[in-house]
Amino acid sequence: MPSLGATFGRGAATLPQWDLANSDCVLVMGSNMAENHPIAFRFVMQAKQRGATVIHADPRFTRTSAMADIYAPLRAGSDIAFLGGIINHLLQNDLWFREFALPYTNLSTIVGEDYRGPGELGGYFSGWNAEGRRYSPESWQYDGVVVPSSLAEGYVEIEGFAEATRRLHEGPTPKDPTLQHPSCVYQILKRHFARYTPEMVEQVTGCPREVFLKVADAMARNSGRERTGAICYAVGWNHHTKGAQIIRTGAILQALLGNVGRPGAGLLALRGHTSIQGSTDIATLYDLLPGYLPQPHAFRPHHTLEDYLKVETSPTGWWNNFPKYYVSLLRAFYGAQATPENGRGHDLLPRIVGDHSQLPLTVAMANGVIKGLFVMGQNPVVGGSNSKLVQRGLAQLDWLVVRDIAETDTATFWRDGHLVRDGEMRPEDIGTEVFLMPGSLSGEKAGSFTNTHRLLQWHDKVVAGPGDSRSELWFTYHLGRRLQELYRASTREEDAPIRSLLWDYPVDEEGEPDAEAVLREINGYTWPEREQLASFNDLKSDGSTACGCWIYGGVFPQPGRNLARARKPDGPEGPGTHLGWGFAWPDNRRTLNNRASADPEGRPWSERKRLVWWDETKGEWQSPDQIDFVKTKRPDYEPDWSKRPAGMDALSGTQPFIMIPDGVAGIFVPSGLKDGPLPEHYEPTETPVRNAFHPGVEGNPPAKRWAHDLNPIAAPGDPRYPHVLTTYRLTEHHSGGTPTRIVPTTAELQPEGFCEIPTELARELGLRSTDWVVLSTPRGEIETRALVTDRLRPFRLGERRVFQLGLPWHYGWAGMATGDVANVLTAVVGDPNTGMHENKALTCALRPGRLARRGGQG
Amino acid sequence: MAGGLAHPRTLEYTDRDPQGPVPQEAELTAGHRVESGRSYGFFTDTTLCIGCKACEVACKEWNNLPADQPGLTGQSYDNTGRLGAHSWRHVTFLERGARATSMPPFQSNWLMMSDVCKHCDPAPCLEACPTGALFRTEFDTVVVQQDICNGCGYCVPACPFGVVELAKEDGKAHKCTLCYDRLKGGLEPACAKSCPTDSIQFGPVEALQQRAAARVEELEAQGQTAAYLYGTPGGPGATGGIRRLNAFFLLTDRPERYNLPPAPSRPSRNARPSFLAGLATMAGLAVAAALIGVGRR
């Protein structure tokens, strides 16, 4: 989530989902919220019942659209053009919330004069390196000062980076509050988006001009002191080679409208699984350590602890506390083995050397580089991009461990998969040894979920799982324990990390580790006494504290007091922040950046939208929420620059975005993003049309590509693949399908794969619902059933009429609800920031009929 | 921020043992206690339905009903087809003008309705039942007792809504019980409890009717002028001798579009006229026979 991180300081939803009920306008975009987040959608319906305007902007008319007041159809992959058009409309007509955006964002900050935008450089931002297909962000910096990124990876490859950031101690970033300076962010933004005219929006997105303007007006009308609007998005924004920049566009929009940190305002990043937010927090991503700390990198100045802390610690803002969090994490990892001699454990941590995310991992598997794979709670044959490449990769492995609640498609790829079906391999030719280990369901184990708005909720074990099924905790703990046993006698240096690991969780009589012991470690304790800490404010950088994930600090502040267990909602007369229900990171704050709900003087913007205010008599901020600011910092506080202030001392009383080194929301992002400081429309990697903004620069220039024989890409406008294809989920099934396709009562609801086809195209091809069709891309072909519907429509893009097809991706051969694997069609291409694939927008061909079977399997 | 969302009595339980049972849980989840001697039912507000089918799943899970697995129907997102012996909740989907960009508030243009047994007052199925297997409970709901049902099937054509069906497995009549067992335990019926948008609301029928009438007015004020109630006394759905449906609906299109009869009626209403007509015919025939007899003599 680098976009929200770069703009507002934290890569997470800024508001609790129930706060949507306080919204005056909810834009759902890049999400089919009613279908995929029905519980969260309950609060949109509550807002609607209180009179809010509900807008759905989406390529398909879905069950969410059916509940909307305005449905804005747009071609998959054209979101930046749509949102950019709204930004232009706000700026041209002066409809933005100036009193909010001027002090609380970097609109007035002056950017160095070398910066040039893609409008001036033929589709590229300044700093483009065509050979390396990457940007150097040097020319994106503020005038005379480098501001490190607030993202996990603070370091930016700029010569003299650390020294250049030290200027932040000397004074505020250069500003022109009159917004007249030609290089101030406001002027750059205005020039940048001036090209996003209603005509251009209509041509690129296919959304009729009057509909688009109606959306823009609804959003503008519902902003300001008295009113707020929220945006809900999900992977419909993520799954693009420019996904981070789509989210950035939404974030800029909300910053301009004053829709962040306030009741009913913000961006709600809807997460697809029960604890995806938690898995990002506790770092399933290869380049993150728990709590959004960067994994040391072999090719960055991370060699010693001192080097690493020097470049990754922000001089100003909250991230100045970075060393406390990192050193405490190392203590939690290595215990007594973290010593001053080994950099408090820094020397033991593995280094990354490049992109190790799922897409390059898939390619490396297919190339035979990777020998073994653990698949836990995932079904990559169904969910992974370019499924045939995935299956080819699995076939190259020596061993594969699948841990799940049923035999998944991934576990049976060698028997029922496409390699066999297409006659490319026989089961006996596949040497992969597959271990299927039964996993347990959530009710069969204790633990916590971290939901979409950073809320931890504990669940107890209510029933023992059947047979040999075990929890992930059991499996991981005993795997680690046994590995440690195997390496105990080793004296080799490379084995030191595993030998040094602190791995002493208490287990019950069945060998199940105590999940609360893990949460206590995540919360943090003193070392070596192991007394639980009340909050992350108690963490130290001298090795006297241990903490498994600093942002979760305070979730278990005392023995026996697991706040994730708390279940006390506010009553009907209560404030509605529900601080007694679960625990939200950080520090139980429900609305992030909530200092922004008060004006610069500390007064609520309006009584109607009251959340945080300054109480002069008490000398502190007041709120029914936990305050995301220094509680006693006066609104009129100004840093004393003669003392070279550091950390929070360098932020004034009017700078609510405490995780960002200069304290204001980053409308223009000088560092941290790899594809530009501002969002720009680029076409998807596979597109039926040329880029109307920059013919010749079709896709996002630094998008990740991996050349492989099994991963061919269709050229822009390739007439063999004329239709736009978007993949999606249905409310009836869960992602890779394992938990729902095996259960009769959910399987029967959507029992078979299908492809949604617009009525006009079906008529041209003579198709009726339930007829067989074949879809193809350069990666492969699948057969499925047609579902002919008006809910998909043809788009007129300039002179062209473009059809869009919709394909649910849940299906595979395992279980009761079956169908061909949609991801056979998708490509391994990725967002330059996140490595996220592009399965929401690609091109394909469609024909009636079925596939010939070469492998003999039915 | 606006006030909290929880029922006040929820707070009584939050500090206690969360494992312990909550008496009259329906009061917390639906806002109503369940007491025998009162009439209970559903108010299904289609304008709030998002077609998630959680009601179908919750119903089958609680009542232990098997899946029918009819396969992909191609009828929008409806793959369970209809109410039946194994499907006591069924969501109907109707795509209608899905090319619109401006729409009335709440659900429109893709209509979804969670259909269910109407628990009619009076109930035609119950009237047709010769064995007393169908009976009216202390909650004014209509339930089949499978141990008494002899599978005669008279209730099937008697139901004007096509709700009751004989199961292939046991040959007996099956339909929604309005979660009779849950009501006895003070629990809200499974479908209503699982509904994420409160499209299905459970409660005493009179209270639901008041709420529904207010909802129609509220929708009208917001610009949805097509909303009306189906199954409240005097309205469509409560016709032909049926006084009211204890499970009634708020609709925004003609009943037929949702697969509901525009004017359902009780077959038993035809019994008295038919019986009298029969008597009259017999009397006529007797008189004619007598006259003929007299003539011959």
Question: What would you say about this model in short?
Answer:
The complex is a heterodimer of chains A (858) and B (297). Chain A is of the alpha/beta class and 858 residues long. Chain B has a 4-stranded mixed β-sheet. In chain B, strands 2-3 form a two-stranded antiparallel sheet. Chain B has a two-stranded antiparallel ribbon with strand order 4-11.
Task: Summarize the structure in words.
The complex is a heterodimer of chains A (858) and B (297). By secondary structure, chain A is α/β, with parallel strands linked by helices. Among the domains of chain A are: 2-272, Dimethylsulfoxide Reductase, domain 2 (3-Layer(aba) Sandwich), CATH 3.40.228; 704-848, Barwin-like endoglucanases (Beta Barrel), CATH 2.40.40.20. Chain A contains 25 helices and 29 strands. The longest helix of chain A has 16 residues, at 472-487. The mean pLDDT of chain A is 95. Chain B folds into two domains: 24-265, Alpha-Beta Plaits, CATH 3.30.70; 271-297. Chain B has nine helices and twelve strands. In chain B, the strands form five sheets. Chain B has a four-stranded mixed beta sheet with strand order 9-1-12-10. At the A-B interface, α3, β3, α24 and β24 of A face α1, α3 and β3 of B.
**Helix proportion of chain A:** 10-25%
Largest interface: A-B, 72 and 59 residues
Mean pLDDT of chain B: 92
CATH classification class of the largest domain in chain B: Alpha Beta
Helix/strand layout:
The complex is a heterodimer of chains A (858) and B (297).
Chain A: H1 2-8, E1 25-29, H2 33-36, H3 38-49, E2 53-58, E3 70-73, H4 79-92, H5 98-104, E4 128-129, E5 134-135, H6 161-165, H7 185-193, H8 198-205, H9 209-221, E6 229-233, H10 235-238, H11 243-256, E7 266-269, H12 276-281, E8 288-289, E9 293-294, H13 305-312, H14 322-334, H15 358-366, E10 372-376, H16 380-383, H17 387-396, E11 399-404, H18 413-416, H19 418-421, E12 433-438, E13 447-450, E14 455-459, H20 472-487, H21 496-500, H22 515-523, E15 525-526, E16 545-546, E17 583-584, E18 613-615, E19 620-622, E20 704-705, E21 723-728, H23 738-741, H24 744-747, E22 754-758, H25 759-765, E23 772-777, E24 780-789, E25 795-797, E26 800-802, E27 804-808, E28 829-830, E29 842-848
Helix pairs in contact in A: 1-11, 4-8, 4-9, 4-11, 15-17
Chain B: H1 10-14, H2 25-29, E1 40-45, H3 54-63, E2 89-95, E3 110-116, E4 120-121, H4 124-128, E5 134-136, E6 142-144, H5 155-158, E7 165-166, E8 173-174, H6 180-184, H7 190-194, E9 200-204, H8 205-222, E10 228-230, E11 244-245, E12 247-251, H9 271-296
